[in-house]
């Protein structure tokens, strides 16, 4: 066991010599390829970072454009809805005005028809009353009245009838 823990100076020198040769060969033949590999790796990472930054900027630009388009579309939608409501209110108002106008016309026509019917009924009533008055007068007086006397007598009695 002691031999395992003992340090042999000759073995140590050979180990150090082998390590220095390995280090020299590694530096002589491996430093350039390792350095080039590291530079390529560094360049690839740098390009990847630049591409990522470009992609990030492009994404931000697209996001900004999309947000602007959405805001524009939202504004257009709001304008379309507002115009639609205004048109609906205008159409409703016009329909109400037309209905009111039609109602007034119908009421006026009905009033005219009522007045015309009333006048016609009054005229018929006057004629019938005049005929009844003439008949009653003829019976009372026992004589026939001529047309002119008949008319005057009828008008006199009609004027005395209260107008309702």
What does this protein look like?
The protein is mainly α and 164 residues long. It is 92% helix and 0% strand. The chain contains three helices and no strands. It is rod-shaped, with a radius of gyration of 61 Å. The mean pLDDT is 87.
N-C termini distance? 151 Å
Q: What is the count of β-strands?
A: 0
Q: What's the helix count? A: 3
Mean pLDDT comes to 87
Strand content: under 5%
Poorly predicted spans = none
Give the SSE string: HHH
Binned, the helix content reads over 70%
Determine Rg (CA atoms, Å).
61 Å
What global shape is seen?
rod-shaped
Could you list some keywords that capture this structure?
rod-shaped; 164 residues; 92% helix; mainly alpha
Short summary:
The chain is mainly alpha-helical. It contains three helices and no strands.
Detail the topology: elements first, then pairings.
Elements: H1 2-5, H2 9-141, H3 147-160
Helix pairs in contact: 2-3
């Amino acid at each position: 066991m002691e031999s395992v823990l003992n340090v042999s100076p000759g073995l140590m020198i050979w180990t150090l010599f082998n390590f220095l040769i390995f280090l020299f060969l590694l530096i002589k033949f491996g430093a350039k390829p390792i350095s080039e590999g590291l530079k390529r790796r560094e360049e690839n990472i740098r390009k990847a970072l630049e591409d990522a930054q470009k992609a990030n900027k492009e994404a931000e630009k697209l996001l900004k454009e999309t947000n602007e388009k959405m805001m524009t579309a939202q504004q257009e939608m709001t304008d379309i809805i507002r115009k639609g409501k205004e048109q609906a209110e205008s159409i409703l108002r016009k329909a109400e005005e037309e209905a009111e106008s039609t109602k007034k016309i119908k009421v006026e026509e009905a009033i005219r028809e009522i007045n015309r019917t009333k006048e016609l009924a009054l005229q018929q009533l006057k004629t019938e009353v005049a005929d009844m008055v003439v008949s009653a007068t003829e019976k009372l007086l026992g004589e026939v009245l001529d047309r002119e006397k008949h008319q005057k007598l009828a008008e006199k009695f009609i004027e005395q009838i209260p107008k309702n």
